[in-house]
Design brief:
Length: 214
Amino acid sequence: MSSPFYLLEKISFTRKIMEDEYKKRAKQIVKRISPFIDKKEKILDIGTGTGFVAKGIMEAKNKNITCIDVRLNPLCKSIPVIIYDGKKLPFPDESFDTSLLIAVLHHCKKPLSVLDEAIRVSSKRIIIMEDLFESPVEKWLTLIEDSIVNWEFKGHPHSNKTEAGWFNVFKNRKFNVLHFEKFRLICAGFPFRLGIFVLEKKKAKSNMRQYARE
């Protein structure tokens, strides 16, 4: 059965509104993550969604991007997307220089398994963007707003974590946090507190280099 998001896409005026909102959001995201993407690297975009972030990176920085998701988003029609089972990425170890997980992990029932797969196929870094909250009230507002913006009311696991929760997850992985920043973004009229984490594969003695707060 189609979700309300997919049904709304068939209505022309709602499609235009949705496209405009996601394009504006993608433009801001691309601007923030582009400094950490090399023009010559192989990039994997896990959970491509609308494809606007991937397309923005292709146009501004790097055309060598492979896109993969569990299903094809109806707004994503300009770039090819590999469909997979959401469990094991169909690529050998360290197939890509950098992997992207942009607003993906909180939509996953097993986010740490998805993260570990991204780590497995990445040789240099992983760029993650996640919704953040700093109080119980903000948490519930974030969950409600996320469901509305994505039209995902049933089956959404809401695997959200706090800033400290994500840092605790990364601490036990093979990557260190190279860069972290928080910012606010308006999407479809709703305010979101977001965090970007740039993870770098651990070297002999690697420490966090940058830590930016709003």
